[in-house]
Amino acid sequence: MLDYHIHTLPNGIRIVHKQVLHTKIAHSGFILDIGSRDEQPEQLGLAHFWEHMAFKGTAKRKSFHILNRLESVGGELNAYTTKEKLCFYSSVLDKHFEKSFELLTDITFHSIFPEKEIEKERGVILEEMAMYLDTPEEAIVDEFDNVVFDHHPLGNNILGTKESVAGFKKDDFQRFIKDNLSTDALVYCSVSNLPFEQVLKLSEKYLADIPSISKPRKRAPFGQYTPKTVTVEKAISQAHCVIGCPAYALNDERRIPFFMLVNLLGGPGMNSRLNLAVREKHGLVYTIDANYATYIDTGLLSIYFGTEKKQLKRTTALVLKELKKLREKQLGSLQLHTAKEQLMGQLAMAEESNMGLMMMMGKSILDQGHIDTLNEIFDQIKNTTAQDLIDIANDVLPEEKLSFLNYVPS
């Protein structure tokens, strides 16, 4: 059972904490309900650039002092950007928890975006783009977002474009923060052996002076979807393919059953249907998997594999055959039981990561207003029937609903 404490400060910032007595490491971070989908057309990549710039100077610290503050005591400081979230987080020995709290507060709320640092970091991000473009198995998954979501903000690459990144100035960051930051849409979350009272005392010490800001959410909902097939020639040695379509949103009651279906199809287990049918039986791929991403108003199923160019058609046909089986052949009682047990085991092991648990707590509070316990999720899995799965497969996975993106060697 996930026991956690939650407290809302007068300025709207929510503090979420779980005490884990057997650890000496304190994981904590600010998760903001801001991501790349909140960018305007001229701001593509700005949220991710802000993530980088948070480490480049505050009102009282230069970049070196930020980077050295926790690293010098064996800790870690990091950040990430997604379509809907921005997170600044750290891991330190428990005795340095206050130090990390103060530093995270400083970089989250008091960055000053020095122009010289913007110029330097611009080059870093352009190199990050180049590295990503040289990795087709990563690039194709991101480009598939654009195939499915088309001109919607969810289809934009989180890194932005070379043209957009080349033009950002200090006031662009300040305007983006002013337009998007709400204290009631960000969470400070932590997992450590410290009592909640200590975390609360520090939150009042460091966050009480943050002014209350409340901004209405203006996210454009995703609307019309048109299936597409796109083939791109590239200077690569292997063909890469992503197959998928929109799926259920974050708060849809069918999310957990669909996640179970996707896990059965192409989850991390070596016994996934796609791995057995395509790699183990035919030896056509090294990697093949299925993923399900959820957003506040939609979701995305994506199936990825890489294979020889001459085997692309055959491999695609095998994937479609497995999808057809899910639509037409109901799971037997033993198959259903095994699928449930496997997913519950994977989820339980994932919660063993205190870092992952900390981030899950913060994201859940932002998206749902509460945190589901493992037992509550297990109940949803246990209550899923074979008929539920076949109904969902027929709702989401008809072949005519699927989009295809292929990278083929030129």
Question: What does this entry look like structurally?
Answer:
The protein has 410 residues and is an alpha+beta fold. Helix content is 44%, strand content 19%. It is built from 15 helices and 11 strands. Strands 1-2-6-3-5-4 form a 6-stranded mixed sheet, sandwiched between helices. Strands 7-11-8-10-9 form a 5-stranded mixed sheet, with helices on both faces. Strand 1 and strand 2 form a beta hairpin. The N and C termini lie far apart (53 Å). The mean pLDDT is 96.
Number of DSSP strand runs: 11
Relative helix content: 40-55%
Q: What multimeric state do the chains show?
A: single chain
Low-pLDDT regions: none
Mean pLDDT across the residues is: 96
SSE pattern, N- to C-terminal: EEEHHEEHHHHHEHEEHHEEHHHHHE
Structural class of the secondary elements? alpha+beta
First-last Cα distance: 53 Å
Q: Specify Rg, calculated over alpha carbons.
A: 22 Å
Index terms:
410 residues, alpha+beta, six-stranded mixed sheet, five-stranded mixed sheet, 15 helices, 11 strands, 44% helix
Topology:
Elements: E1 5-8, E2 14-19, E3 25-32, H1 46-53, H2 63-71, E4 76-81, E5 86-93, H3 97-109, H4 115-133, H5 136-149, H6 162-167, H7 170-180, E6 186-192, H8 196-207, E7 229-234, E8 239-247, H9 255-266, H10 273-280, E9 288-294, E10 299-307, H11 312-328, H12 333-350, H13 354-368, H14 374-382, H15 386-396, E11 403-409
Parallel strand pairs: 2-6, 7-11
Antiparallel strand pairs: 1-2, 3-5, 3-6, 4-5, 8-10, 8-11, 9-10
Helix pairs in contact: 3-8, 9-15, 10-11, 11-15, 12-14
